[in-house]
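Q: Convert this sequence to structure tokens.
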Amino acid sequence: MGGGTLSLVLGGLGVLLLYRVLRRLRPGARVQDSVVVITGASSGLGKECARVFHAAGARLVLCGRHAGRLQDVVQELSQASAQSQTQTYTPSTVTFDLAEEESLDRAAEEILQCYGQVDILINNAGISYRGNILDTALSVQRAVMDTNYFGPIALTQALLPSMVRRRSGHIVAISSIQGKIALPYRSAYGASKHATQAYFDCLRAEVERHGVGVTVISPGYIRTNLSLNAVTGDGSKYGVLDKTTAMGRDPRDVAKAVLEAVRRRRKDVLLAGPLPALAVYLRHLCPALFFKVMSLRARKEQRP
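A:
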């Protein structure tokens, strides 16, 4: 009986390994000449995504709140095109604020006017949060949710009908490992990312039959200014580069992983080190231990 069980387990692992090898050998989705929309494209991960997708020959529509910063990115990419051996295109830009719901339908129309279609939408824009729940105004919780959750889903739903009509498209949500596990003093941010994970998981199931793919990318900490620009409980800027953020992944590497996930049309991607990845599994397999670890972490941080 023991030998039979072992053989069954090994056989199952062999099948799983073969499946993964065959998936890697399968031709990837075409990025060159595709229309790729990137929100939050003026800095951080969004800017790095713009670089890697531009180098891959995509027709970019860069979105953000500041027209001048978007034009700076366009200029950088145009200069980089001179050394590229791939056919590249001068990016278009659309300026809007994800937190302003009334501007999103207009923004979606402008995006579609750029090339007449959207092949890939990368929902990257977002804000972070640091604070004690006891000292955090409800307005701050709402503001984080507006930018990180309601804004991206409103833009997605505005562009989705055009993808469904063409029976083609790919939607990417840049979430976070905090969409899978909750950390103390990150309540608003973690809640927005948990909501993001749930929404796009539902969307994936509903639109697959229409030929539209959905990918959720969940990175750990990335070396960007996200924590510097994080809001606090009273709505002011946090203004501190967390040690964990400073030691995070290079945003260029994360952007390359996003490009690969799009090419492979992967559904859910966790970009985290061994300990954060273990925490995700621990949350589901041994929740009592996970909650104890988080309680100890909260006491250690003692964030005012």
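DSSP finds ten helices and seven strands in the chain.
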